[in-house]
Amino acid sequence: MISLKKIEGRILRKLVWPLALIQFHGAAIWGRDYFTVQVSSGELMGTLRLKSSCFDQYICYEPTRTWLNLEDLNDIISFIVDDECLIVSAVTSWNDQVTYVHFVFEILGTVKFTTKTLRGGPIPNHHRDMNESEFAYEVVVGLPSEKFRQIINHFYQPGLPFVEAFVIDDEVTFRIGPYEDIVLTTAGGDCVIGGTYDFYRVVIRIYLLDCPDSYIAASEHCNTVWLLQSEGDSPDMVYFPLGELGNFMFYRNR
Question: Could you name the domain of life of the organism this protein comes from (predicted)?
């Protein structure tokens, strides 16, 4: 059984929507330190990870996993009004086939409340369970989220698998094929770059995979978007920090 409470429930509104734009169904996972929602569509993996510390109460007696309709989950969370507290609990059946997720919307300072319930099922075999905490990165590029949205809108076309970012120590160049480059420099204050060396160029791929709206929606929740690249086995990642709440992570599911 799990239980969590967020007094300022409105803060959670629309957080599931970027993932629902990738896939209508996804895995909801309650662990001891995080509540995670994961989706995958073809090669694209999207994750919303919320820290247990961002909730006013977070109880997880044992890890709980279920498969939910994310459009329904987004609609329910978006139901929260400004003066409501959100309480969520989940109970799984004895055979782990059904999980009932209960939502209570409590008007602060009163005894009034409303309830809603979602029914979840077992996570299907085609969903690949990824543990992003095992990823490690050396090269990071940070850019304003507004600039990131401009880049996605500038380059995207149907069927485009990725946009490439060519990174050196003081600039990053975004490019696809013959399209005009977009160049950001650290000297101009356009971006922040770390982990590169002089005369060493790194290529980071932003895997859009026909889901540009998901990237744009996630970027609207943060001020800075980070592009991450590993010299090891970790996939290129687009990382959207949500402050004390947690983060979004989008990457190629290899």
Answer: Eukaryota
